[in-house]
Amino acid sequence: MSELLRVQNLKKHFPIYKGAVFPKKTGAVQAVDGISLTVNKGETLGLVGESGCGKSTAGRTILKLLDPTEGQIIYKGQDITNVKGEELRKLRKEMQLIFQDPYASLNPRKTIEQTVTEPMKIFGMSKEKRQQKLDRLLEVVGLDTYHKYRYPHEFSGGQRQRIGIARALALDPELIICDEPVSALDVSIQAQVINLMEDLQKEFNLTYIFIAHDLSVVHHISDRVAVMYLGEIVEIGEVEELYGDPKHPYTKALLSSIPEARPVEKRERIMLQGDLPSPSNPPQGCKFHTRCPWAEDICKQKKPVLKQVPGAEHQVACHLVKEVVEETEPTPV
Amino acid sequence: MADHLPILEVKDLHTHFFTKAGTVKAVDGVSFSVKPGETLGIVGESGSGKSITAMSVMKLVPSPPGKIVSGDIRFNGESLLLKKEKEMRKIRGKDISMIFQDPMTSLNPVFSVEKQMMETILTHENMNKQQARNRAIELLDLVGIPDAAKRLKNYPHEFSGGMRQRVMIAMALACNPKVLIADEPTTALDVTIQAQILDLLKKLQQELGMAIIMITHDLGVVAEVCDRVMVMYAGKPVEFSSVKELFDHPKHPYTWGLLSSIPQIHNRKERLEAIKGLPPDLRDLAKGCSFAPRCTHVKEECLTKDPALLEDETDHFVRCLLYEQEEKVIIHE
Fold it and tell me: First CA to last CA across chain A, in angstroms?
């Protein structure tokens, strides 16, 4: 598999200003604080973490909807960190986004036809072609052609999400960032949409970055998974490897917290104390040490970097994991 | 607990909404009972009537357009339907209390937590302000909010989501309720916080001996905390049994569909088995079983005949014609 996207030490900080007349920068919300990852063509990379860990901001920064504070985004071997104007516009065609809330992400005043064909119009497709493409898209996402004259309020949540997917596919993108695409849906509908997304991936050879907080869904759909905590990737690896043998205490806690739909076996649960610290004032050293049940002195002083776990496609950033191979530079998997 | 009499009994409850577009049978023949110390789960998708069941028990269904058309709700042997609003107010918050789904919107943003908590206590208990304040501090302590005395002065926006949900629980517990209705208490929360809250509820139940009705769409949460569970579809209970029975021997095709449509980490499938189609419009339900249009085991008679709720020897109820032929006791309709 060839590399499609590479992100290096990506940071996105939102400045905090104080004072109405002469605003002065007093701090920054460190939403994304130095993440590095690669995405290969045709694969699905899952990005998990709790609310506020920066996973959505990471997605939007990669799409260049937000300007990165630091770091590099390399798409198909080209550095796109600072592209602007016409070049950026062309890039938009290749990267699309599916939003979380199917109720808020569609314009209630536009018919489905208008919504789905708008991107094609912007990129100058002829009217005839647009219609052909629209019919084809509605078919692949499982809607009927007569649906195109309807407005969003006439659809259920699951159908709206299908429309959102059709819109994302309108320009034949290579990379789709899915920001919690199924979390607003009921379980029976959620399964339909996940299946659809998997089918589309095969049919159009799509690459997904799948952002979600539901660990079971991410496990189902991903090839590789990155776990984020307070703007940093604490663990990244191949899905079965990471779920089967989690190394980082946070990943362990997350996995043990999922209520699983089978009551027989009671697992030992790692209960985390307290809440996520504020990203505007993150803890020193390892950001997780305030909630980590095994934190030692070194965790409070030295920030851990991602290190390779021997013999597996798996990296972890924790001082307490001993079997890792030391690496001076955090190179993305 | 088996020798206890049920504290709350709901018999053949029908709550309908009379709208211009037609009558919506939101709750259509629900019966259940809970004993002290027991947790009953009500599962279903959006629109299945689980929240309206809870609202009916509290007599909080907005009227008009809603109305409890028939059935009975008995608390401690007394019918709640015969009670006047003034009497209901004494019961709500004291004997039966409720935790709502969204902790962000169910607290009043313009009053401090102290004021909101003391309001409940002063209304129901014979206490002076100082005693009520001490009780409030005690409660916040109980639900694990550090530095309770100081935090009491805070406003809701100063708490995180998990903390707000704890405040909601503390308020619901203020007068030692006998029945606690938790309507999706953890849906808005992250998994690690969800684990904390579920643990807390279990612990408090053991200490205080209350009955809990847990309304949720998450079968994982059910497996985690409930003793018995009722699955609802289109306003009707379709299956009702102990938790172990439900997961070991699910009987209703809808329950099969639900269980196979959630991705499970211990058992990764190539493809999720989604339930096809959409939930029905409750305004004009077709004759016969409401699940028939989506059911994989549908027979001709399912479209014409209303299935009755059947019971087998293990206290396992199911509403499906597949089981009609077998020898079972018909208990309803």
Answer: 13
Considering the domain boundaries, does residue A288 fall inside one? no
What is the Cα–Cα distance from A147 to A156, expressed in whole angstroms? 12
Span B201-230, average pLDDT: 89
Rounded CA-CA distance A176/A169 in Å is 9
Host domain of residue A175: 3-18+39-222
The mean per-residue pLDDT over the stretch A60-86 comes to 90
A276 pLDDT band (50/70/90 cuts)?
A: confident
SS3 assignment, position A6: strand
Helices (H), chain A: 55-62, 85-92, 112-122, 127-140, 157-169, 187-204, 215-221, 239-244, 249-257, 297-301
Question: If you ran DSSP here, which 8-state letter would residue B67 be given?
Answer: E
Residue B142 lies in a domain: no
Residue B253 belongs to a domain: yes
Residue B237 pLDDT > 70, yes or no?
Answer: yes
pLDDT band (50, 70, 90) for residue B288: confident
- Asked if A278 is an interface residue toward chain B (Cβ–Cβ < 8 A), one would say no
Q: CB contact, 8 Å: B192 with chain A?
A: yes
* Per-residue pLDDT tens digits for B150-202: 889 999 988 887 788 888 888 888 888 899 999 888 877 778 888 888 888 88
Nearest to B133 by CA among B110, B116, B147, B111: B116
Q: Which of B91, B75, B39 is nearest to B201 (CA)?
A: B39
Query: Could B191 and A263 be called an inter-chain contact, meaning their C-beta atoms sit closer than 8 Å?
Result: no
> Which residues does chain A have within 8 Å of residue B262's beta carbon, measured at their own beta carbons?
187, 191, 216, 261
Structural domain harbouring B76? 8-95+175-330
- Closest Cα to residue B237, out of B40, B24, B9, B43? B43
B143 pLDDT tier (thresholds 50, 70, 90): confident
Say if residues B320 and B289 touch (Cβ distance below 8 Å): yes
The count of domains in chain B is: 1
Coil, helix or strand at residue B328: coil
CB atoms within 10 A of CB A203: 10
Q: With bands split at pLDDT 50, 70 and 90, how would you rate the model's confidence at A239? A: very high
CATH number at residue A134: 3.40.50.300
CB contact under 8 A, B223 and A261: yes
In a domain, B145, yes or no: no
Q: Is residue B160 part of a domain?
A: no
- The mean pLDDT value for A128-150 works out to 90
Q: How many domains does chain A have?
A: 1
CA gap A297, A141 in Å, rounded: 53
Contact list in B for residue A215 (CB cut-off 8 A) is 191, 265
- B333, pLDDT greater than 50: no
Q: Which amino acid is at A200?
A: L
Chain A residues touching residue B194 (CB < 8 angstroms): 257, 259
Please give the pLDDT value at position A264. 56
Q: Which CATH number fits the domain that encloses residue B274?
A: 3.40.50.300
